[in-house]
Amino acid sequence: MLTTNTPPPTQVLLRLPDDVAARLARAVASRRRNQFLIDLVRRELDKGDQALIDACEALNRVEAANPALRAEAAEWLEADLAASVDKSDPDFDNETFAREAAQAQSALAPKPQPK
């Protein structure tokens, strides 16, 4: 017998305004509310995925109709974008770059507000 250890779903505390909670209670049976909210959240999250899919398909249609754009896309796909920076810029210092990037990221982090 095959047993799999599937972790339980994550429990999330959701606070709804009273008017929204009342509408939810009227519209959805109590034993169906959890699945209703799961489906609603999943559908909203999938909208972003679908927008990206639609944009890709539109670009594919444009490229298919325009040989110059299709050739440019092929150049990008064939390009070696992971070539060592040491070859293209011998003055590049990876340690300095990493340190300065970390400093820039920490400067962007929100500062704790005093209470």
User: Largest sheet at a glance?
Assistant: none
Number of helices: 5
The best one-word shape is extended
What is the straight-line distance between the termini?
57 Å
Q: Which radius of gyration do the C-alpha atoms yield?
A: 25 Å
Poorly predicted regions are none
Structural class: mainly alpha
Strand content: under 5%
What are the secondary-structure elements, in order, as H or E?
HHHHH
- Average of the residue pLDDT scores: 86
Number of strands: 0
**What is the helix content?**
55-70%
Overview of the molecule:
Helix 2 (33-65) crosses helix 3. This protein has helices spanning 18-27, 33-65, 67-78, 85-88, 94-108. It has a domain at 18-81. The radius of gyration is 25 Å and the shape is extended. Helix content is 64%, strand content 0%. It has five helices and no strands. It starts with 17 loop residues before the first helix and ends in a 7-residue tail after the last helix. The protein has 115 residues and is mostly helical.
